[in-house]
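ARCHIVE CARD
Drawer: 12
Card no.: 0347
Subject: one protein chain, sequence and derived structure
Cross-reference: see card 0346
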Amino acid sequence: MDLIDQYLQRSQEIIGDRTREEVRYDKEVLRWLRKGKKNQKAIERANKKYPKEALEVNDRTINDVAAHYEYLLEHENIMKKMH
């Protein structure tokens, strides 16, 4: 297995299976993060647009959620470079 295949396999393990609605929600969060919004604000905006997928974050969970979205941003950048 080459390095790219290893990366893709590991990224799938981290991201997991997502419904179409979850993917849309994630893309909305990422859109706001790219515009310079902080994680909490980006999540609030996505929660308004996709209330069924809304995440509830608090002071204890925000760091884990932020790390997840930072990973998704970096993953997206890597995937763009590969194509």
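Annotation on reverse: The chain is about 70% helix and 0% strand. The mean pLDDT is 93.
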